[in-house]
Amino acid sequence: MTMQEQLRALVERHLVNLAEQLVTVTQLLTPADETLPVAQVVEAEAIMHQLKGTAGSMGFPDIGAVASALDENLKVLKTSSAPIPAAELAPALELLSTLQRVADNTTPAMSKLYNADLSKLVP
User: Fold this and answer.
1) What backbone torsions phi and psi does residue 85 show, to the nearest 5 degrees?
2) What span, in angstroms and rounded, lies between the C-alpha atoms of 103 and 121?
3) What pLDDT score was predicted for residue 108?
4) What is the pLDDT of residue 113?
5) What is the pTM for the complete model shown?
6) Residue 17 Cα to chain centre, angstroms
7) What's the pLDDT tens digit per position in 29-46?
8) CATH classification number, 3-107, choose in 3.40.50.1820, 3.30.1370.20, 3.10.310.30, 1.20.120.160
9) Own/partner pairs, 70-74, CB within 8 angstroms, 24+ separation
10) pLDDT 10s digits, 44-102
């Protein structure tokens, strides 16, 4: 397998992992009642923080930008010492919905790395 093929496989795996992470974050941010435990926000924020960094590294700036906005929103929410009222989750859920739409409309070929000319790196 060439270096380009390996890189493409990595980008493709990233999008599969992204989809799985979005399912997890959606579950974490879905309150069972009128409030959400702060621990779930903390866990969702950790995933989002990782996702925004990985998206940037994999060449998906649009995903990274929305993930960054959601990460910042969750950082504010996780400072609460009490369960988060469902109504206060609305901005985070809207960002999550936007992130899902962006991810759904993203293909591996949209990555800046997917079609990178790696021949310049190898002498």
Assistant:
1) -60, 140
2) 29
3) 96
4) 86
5) 0.90
6) 9
7) 999 899 999 999 999 999
8) 1.20.120.160
9) 70/95, 70/96, 70/99, 71/45, 74/41, 74/44, 74/45, 74/48
10) 999 999 999 999 999 999 999 999 999 999 999 999 889 999 999 999 999 999 999 99
C-alpha to C-alpha distance for 121 and 123, rounded to whole angstroms: 7
The three-state (H, E, C) secondary structure of the chain, written as one string: CCHHHHHHHHHHHHHHHHHHHHHHHHHHCCCCCCEECHHHHHHHHHHHHHHHHHHHHCCCHHHHHHHHHHHHHHHHHCCCCCCEEHHHHHHHHHHHHHHHHHHHCCCHHHCCCCCCCHHHCCC
CB 96 within 8 A of CB 77: no
Q: The tokens of 39 are what?
A: 């621990």
The domain ranges of the chain are 3-107
The answer to whether 29 touches 96, Cβ cutoff 8 Å, is yes
